[in-house]
Amino acid sequence: MKRIRIRVFKKVAIIVGIAIGLYIGTSSAELITIPACEDVYIRTSDPYKTGDIPGYYPFLKFDISVVPTGKQIDSVFLRVIVFRVKIYWDGDVIFWNMNNQEWTESIYPDSLWDFPTSNSTFQDTGFGMEIGNTFSVDLKPIFLRDYDSSHTYCSIKMKDPDCSSRILSHSVNDSLVLGDLCNISFHSHEVSPDSAPTLFVYYGESSVEEEKFRPSSFALWQNNPNPCREFTTIKYQLPKSIHTTLRIYNVTGQLVKTLVNEEKESGTYAVTWDGKNNKGRTVTNGIYFYKLTAEDFTSAKKLFLMK
């Protein structure tokens, strides 16, 4: 049986230091990290395209039974560790829920490809632009399709929108490939649980309790950890459904990264920043500001990046 490592981090209020005058905010959200227990990629090709350009599609499977039942899921992010980026990779990805609990790495690729998918989420840029850790956009709708149904597994299909669609073969080894000729490669679970594709699942109180404590005001908390090295989490809350933006700026006021720019329901949210800008490039060490805007509410806080 494959070993699943679980790390649960309680976010607590601590003082970072008088010298920098910052603190890490208090949060009731908890984090579980779930490494993939199955992963494979299949190679496709379009017979009508000149040159028979291949496409590579990863399929990832996670044992989500480790997440306590009946919790309010705040957000879910996929982290992969990229070790090769080919020129002209543009960082856009489509994610789907695979709607299948039974598949394994040894399954015939035609069968894997033909599984019906649902709950797609599109990331238009910034995925895997540099070697190292990279995070997806929030995949909560994909995760909830299985979590709300008390399924054991959540499986995710990844696709570069530019890829073709005819099955050729599949591969099970120590690396996964995403894209066409312009692709990225990242580690599979065969390397180690620490470098496997991993779901970062943030959750809080149960849905019933959440109704009792529905936010009555806007709030933006200090990022955690701070100072941060590889990634940091920013938590905020909204008392009503509203269009919300959360952006990171450098000390000169230039936009670095847009983390949120969409309609959000009332609730508490957690967003992870991996220290990269909107082009997927790692930013330099230093001081940054993150700003939450929702209707007439605006709040900004300072964070330190020290890689």
Outline the structure in words:
There is one protein chain. The protein is mainly beta and 307 residues long. It has two domains: 31-201, no CATH class; 214-305, Immunoglobulin-like (Sandwich). The protein has three helices and 22 strands. It has helices spanning 109-114, 140-147, 207-212, and strands at 8-10, 14-17, 22-24, 30-35, 38-45, 54-63, 71-85, 93-97, 118-123, 132-135, 153-159, 166-171, 175-179, 183-187, 198-206, 219-220, 232-238, 242-250, 255-264, 267-273, 286-294, 297-305. Strands 1, 4, 7, 10, 13, 14 and 15 form a seven-stranded antiparallel sheet that branches. The protein has a six-stranded antiparallel sheet with strand order 9-8-11-6-5-12. Strands 19-18-21-22 form a four-stranded antiparallel sheet, with no helix packed on it. The longest helix is centred in the middle third of the chain and has 8 residues, at 140-147. The model is unreliable at 1-27 (pLDDT under 50).
Q: Give start-end ranges of low-pLDDT stretches.
A: 1-27
Q: What fraction strand?
A: over 45%
First-to-last CA distance: 36 Å
Helix content: under 10%
Q: Looking at the structure, what is the overall shape?
A: globular
Q: How large is the count of helical segments?
A: 3
What topology does this entry show?
Elements: E1 8-10, E2 14-17, E3 22-24, E4 30-35, E5 38-45, E6 54-63, E7 71-85, E8 93-97, H1 109-114, E9 118-123, E10 132-135, H2 140-147, E11 153-159, E12 166-171, E13 175-179, E14 183-187, E15 198-206, H3 207-212, E16 219-220, E17 232-238, E18 242-250, E19 255-264, E20 267-273, E21 286-294, E22 297-305
